[in-house]
Design brief:
The complex is a heterodimer of chains A (about 500) and B (about 475). Chain A is built from 15 helices and twelve strands. Chain A is an alpha+beta fold and about 500 residues long. In chain A, the strands form two sheets. Chain A has a six-stranded mixed sheet, with helices on both faces. Chain A has a six-stranded mixed sheet with strand order 9-10-8-11-7-12, with helices on both faces. In chain A, strand 1 and strand 2 form a beta hairpin. With about 475 residues, chain B is α+β, with helices and mostly antiparallel strands. Chain B is built from 16 helices and 15 strands. Chain B has a six-stranded mixed sheet with strand order 2-3-9-4-8-7, with helices on both faces. In chain B, a hairpin with a 5-residue loop joins strand 5 and strand 6. Chain B is globular, with a radius of gyration of 26 Å. The two termini of chain B are about 25 Å apart. Classes of the chains: A alpha+beta (about 500), B alpha+beta (about 475). At the A-B interface, helix 2, helix 3, helix 4, helix 7 and strand 7 of A face strand 1, helix 2, strand 8, helix 3 and helix 4 of B. Strand 12 of chain A pairs antiparallel with strand 1 of chain B.
Chain lengths: ~500, ~475
């Protein structure tokens, strides 16, 4: 006989990863909130009820997943060391994997370009793929793909520039060889022709991804309006005219200032033996020297909440208005950063979350997104919403304000916060499979904090309801924020007019 | 009061000259290039397959002991091309399947799986549909219970549906005015014959969506979920002897239905009419897309098309991408994608380019199609064939290197009527391919003088396409965008 798996709603909150059975978390049933919480409670079949016959699925023994200690580390800590030339190396072996992600992270980003050269960091990143004096224009890609690379990319962020590839583990030497050559010999092979071609490619990318249109315009105002017009992040949104002005000598200067082994971290995550990889890393990256003295990077004091509400309107070449409500917030990994990630989940993750319910489920907005954009010098927490037909940004703003005011009167309770932080903690456990993301994440760390999946999981699990309430009050005041409105006009100029209430 | 800001006039900071020497590390100090010999491409899936009395197929594949398990549920009923219902209805039915569920006590719970912390994805495919998720080891019993309940007992509510429908209609209506949307709207109609569902446009979908109601969704759902047409795949950190009874206990009670025949009929291709379409819109770039029929997943030419996909734009080192992007800097990239189902395949080639080079690029695409057919230039060269085969093989192995990829790959292959246990044979076929075999497969499917092409761009694109020898073209103006 086969018994149907029944579903029951039980009044138990607690962690979603609560083990094989439905153990109610201690003390989780008293709050009124938990009455809304459903948890799937399977009636697990007993061996005699499972219907398995000997010889079909094997012996008549049902092996259910064994409970494991939810506090057990996700993975052993990686090995971290530094070469004589200053290159930081992080090795995270993962058993049972055929592939390895190799990521080279440089501590340079779009915040480091001089005034009026937005896009120079991105152009330099492109040129790292366009050959050296020892490898021609196509050899970096050809060698990687001939070696079976299934992912290969470069990304320029505000604080870091990352190059990564996922290769069969037997091809780690090829990846290290290419990383060493482009760091050591890219400049020796750089020509005006290569710069001109990649300049054109970068411009195409900007148009293709919408960076030079209304999206870029709004992003520019989002950062300037929250962190200030003089903040280093004023330069992180690329401009096509700046890219078009970049020449060979500009790239050479920028590369020499910022690309050096002592400004980089090499991370390997995947199926390899560290004892065999360490000598390979030394052989390929050990000989690389820096070609210019180190420089101080642009910095900024930690962000503070705005003094007043600031309003900016941008005319956008688009067919729908856009609304951003945004606040300057603590930097990546600073106290408050994890809390704001959890708050973003609390506000929109589920259909009954306050902002999603008030905007999307009510029909006011077509879409809504809430995100903490975490960066090294300061972050921006933004609620982004697009009005549904027949509604406008003023209605959206009023609805958000009502919800935020309500949350001030009745903050999220402990069980709700536990569930939201568990979303983040669970993501870290599930992230164990994604080699490239793990390598990129580890490259962002430094001696103070290494963002392993385990450290990140613990960072989120440390967030509690009082932290969330305090963070909401301190960092998301409704009367001191940026209200950024994109006013749609399909016939507007791609670089539409910007109006601000303080002329700043 | 809002004040207009000046955004145009800016002064650039002076940049000093670089230091000499430019590169401090001599080339001879660096290590020699390593060998690129790859390991033998072994594939060990450790796959257990069972079929329940009601016909439901179960696959369990044990992977790394990393605490992560992936689940894929696939249904051969009600794919995108099922003639019994419009694709837009089926898509809406499966997309809303998990939104509300009837509980055993008669209540209704929203987002049952999401509320339990899961993040299921639903995908409508040509010959069926798929639900997949990545979960923690210890969540498997709960997940299977929630999945079974959600699939079998969805609740369709008028207000809920209206919200989803209105948002979907709005998004599609906006999409159809963008270059990508304009192409997606018109290109299938150039490849497929009138009356074939695949020829349907985005505008058709919008019209269908506008007329749908709760009863349509309920009726559509009733036609799905015959266990004889379904499979569940569990992969990752899972013990097969433990997982099989869990599935049996939850899904074994499903009653087999009438098991309707395979849903999607084979495609019918257009044999007459214009080959191309130009949609005139004043843009800073020209958007180009070419669409061609290709072998279905179980066809003997499937392996050759995995290689052709790489050669034509699936890999960065494909000839067109290197020429257009790295060589001339006139595009961000040139991409090719081959997708196959049980009944058919499609090959797409897509790029966006500097309008001044439209004619040359279209000419280069058509020449490249002739080259891979062995009719122009040197044909497929040994080195590029080797790189393409490596890429195709390693991509498949990479998909099978983690639990979500394993569950999805096995599910999709089963959906297409292909035995997942035959995946190692596909690797062997890939390895055995030579240039002659790849060119022969290209000649059987790819038609350089006929494959439909759509361009969106300035008015002079029309002349450029004619100059490139694309044959008969239709020209239309893009609809004007307006504030929504």
């Amino acid at each position: 006989m086969v018994r149907f798996g029944a579903l029951a709603l039980i009044l138990a909150a607690g962690s979603a990863a609560g083990g094989r059975a439905q153990r109610a978390a201690p003390g989780a049933t008293e709050t009124s909130e938990t009455a809304e919480t459903s948890e799937i409670a399977p009636d697990e079949p007993s061996p005699s009820e499972s219907g398995d016959a000997p010889g079909e699925d094997g012996p008549l023994v049902v092996e259910l997943p064994e409970p494991r200690d939810p506090d057990a580390p996700i993975a052993p800590p990686p090995e971290v060391y530094t070469l004589d030339n200053g290159l930081r190396v992080v090795l995270q072996p993962v058993s049972g994997r055929r592939f390895t992600a190799v990521a080279m992270t440089y501590r340079v980003g779009s915040r480091d370009v001089p005034h009026g050269w937005r896009g120079l960091a991105h152009l330099t990143e492109h040129l790292m793929f366009s050959g050296t004096d020892t490898l021609n224009e196509v050899e970096i890609y050809l060698r990687l793909e001939a070696a079976g690379a299934v992912e290969r990319n470069g990304e320029t962020g505000p604080d870091r520039t990352i190059f990564y590839e996922v290769v069969p583990s037997s091809q780690i030497p090829t990846a290290l060889y290419l990383e060493s050559h482009r760091l050591a010999r890219m400049l020796a092979g750089l020509t005006e022709g290569r710069v001109a071609r990649q300049r054109a490619v970068v411009l195409h990318e900007g148009w293709e991804r919408g960076g030079y249109g209304w999206r870029g315009l709004l992003a520019e105002q989002l950062y300037a309006g929250t962190l200030g017009d003089d903040h280093p992040y004023r330069s992180i949104v690329e401009r096509s005219d700046d890219v078009a002005a970049a020449r060979l000598e500009h790239v050479q200067w920028f590369f020499q200032r910022h690309y050096a082994p002592d400004r980089a971290t090499l991370v390997l995550v995947g199926g390899f033996d560290p004892a065999r990889v360490r000598p390979l890393v030394e052989r390929h990256l050990g000989p690389v020297r820096r070609s210019a003295p180190p420089v101080e990077r642009a910095s900024a004091p930690p962000p503070e909440p705005l003094a007043t509400e600031r309003r900016i309107e941008v005319e956008i070449q688009h067919d729908r208005d856009q609304l951003y409500l945004a606040w300057p917030t603590p930097a990546l990994y600073a106290p408050g950063d994890a809390e704001l990630d959890v708050i973003s989940t609390l506000l929109t993750e589920r259909r009954d979350a306050p902002i999603r319910r008030a905007l999307v489920e009510s029909g006011l907005a077509l879409e809504v997104g809430v995100r903490q954009r975490s960066h090294e010098l300061g972050s921006v927490f933004a609620i982004h919403a697009v009005p549904s037909p027949g509604h406008d940004v003023a209605e959206l703003r009023a609805a958000v304000d009502r919800e935020l005011a309500r949350l001030r009167r009745a903050p999220f309770d402990a069980a709700t916060v536990r569930r939201a932080r568990e979303v983040w903690a669970r993501r870290m456990r599930l992230g164990v499979e994604d080699l490239a993301s793990r390598a990129v994440r580890l490259g962002v760390g430094d001696d103070e904090y290494l963002p392993t999946l385990e450290n990140e999981r613990r960072r989120y699990l440390a967030v509690d309801a009082s932290d969330v309430a305090r963070t909401l009050r301190r960092w998301l005041p409704t009367d001191r924020r940026l209200v950024l409105v994109g006013v749609a006009d399909p016939r507007a100029s791609p670089r539409g007019r910007v109006r601000s209430d303080d002329g700043g | 009061m809002l004040v207009l800001l000046a955004t145009g006039c800016r002064v650039r900071e002076a940049i000093p000259p670089p230091q000499r020497p430019l590169a401090a590390t001599p080339a001879e100090a660096l290590a020699e290039p390593p060998s690129v010999e790859l390991d033998a491409p072994g594939l060990s899936l450790r796959l257990v397959r069972r079929e329940l009395d009601n016909g439901l197929t179960i696959f369990v594949s044990r992977g790394a002991a990393d605490g992560v398990v992936s689940v894929a549920f696939v249904d051969r009923s009600g794919g995108r091309w099922d003639p019994r219902a419009p694709a837009a209805l089926t898509e809406l039915t499966v997309d809303t399947l998990l939104r509300a569920t009837r509980t055993v006590d008669g209540g209704v719970v929203d987002d049952l799986l999401e509320r339990a912390g899961f993040t299921p994805e639903v995908h409508l495919l040509g010959s069926g549909w798929l639900v997949r998720d990545r979960i923690l080891f210890e969540e498997l019993p709960r997940y299977l219970t929630g999945l079974e309940r959600s699939l079998r007992h969805p609740v369709h509510r008028e207000a809920d549906l209206r919200l989803v429908l209105d948002a979907r209609v709005e998004r599609r209506s906006a999409l159809v005015l963008t270059p990508d949307g304009l192409i997606a709207d018109r290109l299938p109609g150039l490849l497929y014959a009138d009356g074939d569902r695949r020829a349907g446009s985005l505008r058709d979908e919008i019209a269908v969506l506008r007329g749908l109601g709760v009863d349509d969704l309920t009726a559509r759902h009733d036609a799905l979920l015959d266990p004889r047409r379904c499979a569940i795949v569990i992969a990752g950190d899972v013990e097969p002897l433990g997982a099989l009874p869990l599935v049996r206990a939850r899904f074994g009670g499903w009653e087999a239905g009438d098991a309707p025949p395979m849903d999607a009929p084979p495609p019918r291709h257009r044999t007459e009419g214009a080959r191309g379409l130009v949609i005139v819109q004043p843009l800073v770039r020209t958007y180009l897309k070419l669409l061609e029929h290709a072998p279905p997943l179980a066809h003997e030419d499937h392996a050759a098309f995995l290689v052709l996909e790489q050669l034509l734009g699936g890999m960065f080192a494909s000839r067109l991408n290197l020429v257009l992007r790295e060589g001339r800097g006139i595009s961000y990239g040139f991409h090719a994608r081959y997708a196959a189902t049980a009944t058919e395949g499609e090959l797409q080639m897509v790029t966006a380019i500097d309008p001044a080079h439209t004619a040359a690029v279209v000419e280069a695409i058509l020449e490249e199609l002739r080259r891979v057919r062995g009719e122009h230039g040197p044909g497929v060269r040994p080195f590029e064939l080797s790189v393409a085969k490596t890429r195709a093989r390693e991509q498949l192995l990479a998909d099978l290197d983690h639990s979500l990829g394993v569950a999805t790959t096995i599910g999709v292959h089963w959906l297409a009527g292909r035995d997942p246990e035959a995946l190692p044979a596909l690797l062997a076929r890939l390895d055995a391919l030579d240039a002659d075999a790849v060119e022969a497969a290209a000649r059987r499917w790819i038609r350089p003088d006929r494959a439909p092409i759509v361009a969106v761009g300035r008015a002079d694109v029309v002349q450029a396409l004619r100059a490139a020898g694309t044959g008969s073209l239709r020209v239309i103006a893009a609809p004007e965008r307006h504030r929504r």
